[in-house]
């Protein structure tokens, strides 16, 4: 199972950390603000007060052992760049970094960030679900316990009709639409067949959607 570390527990970082933890993953939360750490104690596996710009502190936390590290430092662009550079040099395989603007994003990519996200465009919850499930393309929270996801069709669905797949009974979710390239079927019927490359727009409770996320 993947292990995640989230550096910077502001609104965006804490949203990602909580969601990953709720999905059953080990999550280390790091922030220099003791109050933020206290607030997250029960929402992650471990919450640690540390200065992420201190390389020795990152080494002591074993940051290189994490599969994914999310750098979600607030307004301090210099610290964001420094921390991203350090954790890549320490050998972290996949680094997601939050950018304040396009220029900041370009710099983060230049120094090795594997993915750059912009809080104005990418909700923490959406990013978290995308990180842990390769078949989830987009995630829209409609209510605290109810969402819509765009899910890439998995091989076991190819060539089967919606009636045969019976996703409503098996997983408790409903297919709202099927996309393939530029074509969108906004009212798919029971006899419509799922093909390789299809993207299904699925709605359901978060609990039931978790079952879809685990498919491959």
Describe the structure.
This protein has 216 residues and is an alpha/beta fold. The protein has nine helices and 13 strands. It has helices spanning 11-22, 34-40, 55-60, 77-89, 102-110, 124-132, 162-165, 167-171, 206-213; strands at 3-7, 26-31, 46-49, 68-71, 94-98, 115-117, 136-143, 146-152, 160-161, 174-180, 183-185, 193-194, 199-205. A six-stranded parallel β-sheet has the order 3-2-1-4-5-6, with helices on both faces. A five-stranded antiparallel β-sheet has the order 7-8-13-10-11. Strands 9-12 form a two-stranded antiparallel ribbon. It is elongated and about 60 Å long. The protein starts with a strand and ends with a helix.
Features of this protein?
single chain; alpha/beta; six-stranded parallel beta sheet; elongated
Question: Structural class of the secondary elements?
Answer: alpha/beta
**How widely separated are the two ends?**
15 Å
Number of strands: 13
Helical content band: 25-40%
Radius of gyration from the alpha-carbon trace, in angstroms: 19 Å
Proportion in β-strands: 25-35%
Blueprint of the fold:
Blueprint: E1 3-7, H1 11-22, E2 26-31, H2 34-40, E3 46-49, H3 55-60, E4 68-71, H4 77-89, E5 94-98, H5 102-110, E6 115-117, H6 124-132, E7 136-143, E8 146-152, E9 160-161, H7 162-165, H8 167-171, E10 174-180, E11 183-185, E12 193-194, E13 199-205, H9 206-213
Parallel strand pairs: 1-2, 1-4, 2-3, 4-5, 5-6
Antiparallel strand pairs: 7-8, 8-13, 9-12, 10-11, 10-13
Helix pairs in contact: 1-6
């Amino acid at each position: 199972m993947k292990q995640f570390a989230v550096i910077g527990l502001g609104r965006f970082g804490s949203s990602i950390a909580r969601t990953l933890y709720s999905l059953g993953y080990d999550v280390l939360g790091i922030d220099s603000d003791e109050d933020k750490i206290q607030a997250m104690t029960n929402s992650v596996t471990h919450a640690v007060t540390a200065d992420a710009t201190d390389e020795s502190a990152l080494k002591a936390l074993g940051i290189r052992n994490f599969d994914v590290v999310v750098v979600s430092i607030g307004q301090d662009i210099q610290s964001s760049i420094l921390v991203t550079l350090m954790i890549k040099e320490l050998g972290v395989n996949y680094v997601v970094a939050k950018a304040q603007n396009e220029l900041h994003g370009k710099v983060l990519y230049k120094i090795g960030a594997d993915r750059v996200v912009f809080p104005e465009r990418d909700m923490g919850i959406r990013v978290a679900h995308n990180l842990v499930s390769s078949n989830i393309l987009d995630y829209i929270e409609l209510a605290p316990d109810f969402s819509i996801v765009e899910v890439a069709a998995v091989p076991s669905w190819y060539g089967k009709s919606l009636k045969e797949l019976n996703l409503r009974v098996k997983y408790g979710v409903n297919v709202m639409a099927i996309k393939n390239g530029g074509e969108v079927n906004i009212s798919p019927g029971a006899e419509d067949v799922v093909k390789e490359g299809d993207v299904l727009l699925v709605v359901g409770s978060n609990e039931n959607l978790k079952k879809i996320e685990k498919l491959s």
